[in-house]
């Protein structure tokens, strides 16, 4: 697995980009945007872009203005806009957006949610999700909020009464929203405390202290590793206190994980398990889906080395130091991960708070399905046609000069039969002048029950490329609001997957 490229300064040794803490990386407008706090904790947000060949000059965000930041930012693309989320100097959660023309806007998260460290952000189930370590009375709690439109936010909630420290990592894998985080070292995990309490409460009152100690040790062996000298103790209170202390030490430098299934956060546990939990020395891990697997990368527990473990949907595989020809890559803090043009990129600050940005990358080295345009020359139908010669099949014929056009009303739809159930990973729509402003991408297996896998609001451009995750035989663009007084008119409706 260890076939990473050489770890190197960005963009080069002579003109390296300075940073304080971890960066954030996201793909937008066919480039990687890399955001970070300026060197020597300058409290300002900076960014640079990478097109796969060269880096742009590092500049303040947005150009010519000053936005304050604590710690590290997070970024995601939602509804054709880039969202930048960060911890501002007033210890509040701050959100800003950039459209395709490079215009930045401020988004108020009301009420203003308190935050005590860097957030993480991901898009899942047509919503933008943010997780973070809470501030104020929620300090140390793993908190969450989300939005469907970028303006109205859900009330913040604590996830499963989880206590954590540092920066969580949010990612999507196998139709679940996954959250990785560093355990809190200031207290025993609540679930383990409950286990110990249940054991003690179940004991008969006439048991002597030695029996109490022995039973607690035997039943709770899966909760914490216990030293032999504890077994010699006849003081039940001392034994339990040592159990708590051992668990505190274990929880605080290990990687934890929970997942959201659409209704509940589930399976809070050490990653990959209690016996072989991934050690962590930085403020948090980083996780991302890549090459049909889930990658978890973080700074190791005992050194500044970068470590990487992978999950294939059933099992976690060997945790390894990231290296090339014996040269082990080192970091300060969590890395930033992004997939661009089939390559996984890992960005991080150099070891010992060096203040410089480094980069390594990894090409796909496991078998992956061929991604192709599944809609090309497939059967198509529509809710209406403006005239008899602007037909739905023209949107899937591979000819950029032909088009389909609907009646001048809402709603309207264009549907494609893929022939069989397919895994859908992205959709591209090339509009004619009569574009859709608000629309949904939906899938179905029976043309009756439809599932929305992507939603676009306030679209203003004529070429829309969307990363999606869904399955179905039928796929359609379901338009709810036109961008002009005309109908919906599409030159090309392209569906990519396998």
Fold and architecture overview:
The protein has 498 residues and is mainly beta. The chain is 9% helix and 44% strand. The chain is built from four helices and 34 strands. Strands 27, 28, 29, 30, 31, 32, 33 and 34 form an eight-stranded antiparallel β-sheet that branches. Strands 1-26-25-24 form a four-stranded antiparallel β-sheet, with no helix packed on it. A hairpin with a 2-residue loop joins strand 14 (169-173) and strand 15 (176-182). Helix 2 runs parallel beside helix 4. The longest helix is centred in the middle third of the chain and has 17 residues, at 236-252. The protein is globular. The two termini are 24 Å apart. 42% of the residues are buried. Residues 186-193, 203-210, 219-236 and 244-250 have low confidence and may be disordered.
């Amino acid at each position: 697995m260890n076939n990473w490229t050489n770890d190197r300064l960005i963009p080069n040794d002579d003109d390296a980009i300075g940073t304080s803490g971890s960066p954030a990386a996201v793909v937008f407008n066919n480039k990687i945007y890399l955001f970070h706090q300026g060197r020597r904790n300058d409290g300002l947000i900076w960014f640079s872009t990478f097109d796969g060949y060269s880096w742009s000059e590092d500049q303040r965000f947005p150009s010519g203005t000053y936005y304050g930041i604590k710690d590290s930012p997070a970024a995601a693309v939602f509804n054709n806009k880039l969202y930048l989320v960060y911890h501002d100097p007033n210890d509040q959660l701050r959100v800003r957006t950039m459209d395709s023309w490079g215009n930045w806007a401020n988004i108020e998260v009301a009420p203003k949610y308190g935050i005590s460290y860097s957030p993480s952000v991901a898009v899942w189930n047509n919503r933008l999700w943010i997780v973070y370590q809470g501030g104020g009375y929620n300090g140390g709690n793993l908190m969450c909020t989300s939005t469907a439109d970028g303006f109205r936010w859900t009330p913040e909630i604590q996830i499963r009464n989880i206590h954590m420290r540092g920066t969580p990592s949010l990612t999507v894998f196998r139709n679940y929203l996954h959250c990785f985080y560093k355990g809190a070292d200031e207290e025993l995990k609540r679930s383990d405390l409950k286990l110990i309490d249940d054991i003690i409460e179940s004991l008969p009152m006439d048991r002597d202290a030695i029996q109490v100690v022995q039973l607690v040790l035997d039943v709770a062996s899966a909760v914490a590793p216990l030293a032999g000298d504890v077994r010699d103790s006849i003081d039940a209170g001392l034994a339990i206190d040592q159990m708590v202390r051992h668990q505190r030490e274990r929880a605080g430098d290990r990687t934890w994980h929970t997942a959201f299934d659409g209704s509940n956060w589930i399976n809070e546990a050490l990653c990959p398990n209690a016996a072989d939990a991934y050690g962590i020395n930085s403020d948090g891990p980083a996780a991302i889906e890549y090459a049909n697997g889930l990658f978890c990368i973080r700074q190791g527990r005992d050194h500044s080395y970068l470590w990487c473990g992978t999950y294939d949907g059933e099992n976690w595989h060997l945790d390894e130091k990231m290296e090339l020809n014996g040269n082990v890559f080192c970091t300060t803090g969590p890395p930033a991960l992004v997939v661009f043009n089939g390559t996984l990129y890992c960005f991080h600050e150099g070891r010992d708070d060096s203040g410089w940005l480094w980069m390594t990358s990894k090409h796909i080295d496991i078998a992956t399905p061929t991604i192709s345009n599944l809609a090309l020359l497939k059967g198509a139908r529509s809710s209406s046609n403006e005239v008899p010669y602007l037909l739905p099949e023209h949107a899937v014929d591979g000819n950029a000069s032909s088009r389909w056009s609907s009646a001048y009303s809402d709603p309207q739809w264009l549907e494609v039969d893929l022939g069989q159930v397919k895994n859908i990973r992205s959709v591209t729509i090339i509009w004619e002048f009569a574009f859709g402003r608000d629309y949904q991408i939906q899938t179905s297996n029976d043309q009756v029950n439809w599932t929305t896998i992507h939603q676009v609001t306030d679209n203003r451009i004529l070429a829309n490329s969307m990363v999606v995750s869904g399955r179905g035989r039928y796929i359609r663009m379901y338009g709810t609001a036109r961008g002009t007084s005309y109908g919906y008119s599409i030159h090309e409706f392209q569906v990519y997957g396998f």
